[in-house]
């Protein structure tokens, strides 16, 4: 089935659904990327939009493989964010479902350089700035062990 990807400037009558994935390396550092194009110049955990008919888990596995080449195992939904600040700033409303997943310890590759200029392992308590709202919320919720927090 062919699906249409909306440009950032296209408005919808309803929020779009995205997935973000929290992956930690053996040192407990978080994988983040510096975005290009959509969501530039923000740093963010890896992720993307949910395709029609796709589960959150399948979207997480697909997005990580497409963006980084990493194979992840056992993705589990841990958090959700309603990205109202992004809507107020850009007119683009999304809801992000955040998953935590294991990976085999491999290093990420830069497979979509038009979307991301670099990947970096960072301390979760010192996120690079500027940081994308959904990713920031995901990390704060993960650290606080909560599912949702009002922004």
Report on the structure:
With 151 residues, the protein is an alpha+beta fold. It has a single domain (16-144), classed as Nucleoside Triphosphate Pyrophosphohydrolase, CATH 3.90.79. The chain is 21% helix and 30% strand. The chain is built from three helices and seven strands; from the N terminus they run ββββαβαββα. A four-stranded mixed β-sheet has the order 4-1-6-5, sandwiched between helices. A three-stranded antiparallel β-sheet has the order 3-2-7. β2 (30-35) and β3 (43-44) form a beta hairpin.
Could you provide a short overview of the structure?
By secondary structure, the protein is an alpha+beta fold. Helix content is 21%, strand content 30%. The protein has a single domain (16-144), classed as Alpha-Beta Complex (Nucleoside Triphosphate Pyrophosphohydrolase).
């Amino acid at each position: 089935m062919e699906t249409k990807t909306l440009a950032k400037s296209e408005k919808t009558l309803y929020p779009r659904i995205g997935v973000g994935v929290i992956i930690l390396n053996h040192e407990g550092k978080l994988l983040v990327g510096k975005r290009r194009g959509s969501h530039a110049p923000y740093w963010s955990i890896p992720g993307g939009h949910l395709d029609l008919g796709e589960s959150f888990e399948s979207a997480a596995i697909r997005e990580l493989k497409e963006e980084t080449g990493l194979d992840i195992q056992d993705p589990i939904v841990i958090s959700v964010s309603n990205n109202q600040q992004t809507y107020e700033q850009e007119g683009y409303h999304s809801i992000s479902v955040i998953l935590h997943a294991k990976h085999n310890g491999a290093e990420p590759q830069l497979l979509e350089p038009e979307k991301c200029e670099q990947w970096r392992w960072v301390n979760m308590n010192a996120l690079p700035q500027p940081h994308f709202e959904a990713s920031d919320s995901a990390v704060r919720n993960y650290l606080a062990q909560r599912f949702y927090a009002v922004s």
